[in-house]
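Re: beginner question about structure tokens

> Can someone show what the tokenized structure looks like for a real chain? I only ever see the sequence side.

Sure, here's an example I had lying around. Input first:
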Amino acid sequence: MSSSSPDVIVVGAGPTESLMAYELAASGLSVVVVEAGQRFGGANALENSEANAGKIMWSAPRKYDGKDFIVPKTGVGVGGGTLPWLGVMPRFHPDDFRTYSKEGVGADWPIGYDDLRIHYAKVEREFGVAGECGPYSSEAYELPML
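And the corresponding structure tokens:
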């Protein structure tokens, strides 16, 4: 084992953390990623998210505050949140950033969909997202692996 310490330790190996680790390493930093769950491999490792929920869902106690909280669906293992939602990476709808203004719940975000559009495209390219945008997309956009 090396006696040197990494520049950065990334906690979690989900989609966001993995992309962050990649970007930090590409910039020349030494990066270590730690993950609480296992690596699932092979075509049959997680055939069905419903049948395998006990293996992949984060079950540690969490604290939720406020009348409008949501419970995120997250997974434990290399892949994080992509494990229970089967790798689907939908973009938020523009109205999702203005839930208080539009629906009277939560709080409006200080940014909007237009602020994230370029970042969505970059993440979709980095992860190799494929498929169709579907009928619920707020706009037509092309996925990089179509």
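Each token stands for a local structural state, so reading them left to right follows the chain. The chain has two domains: 7-39+52-88, 91-141.
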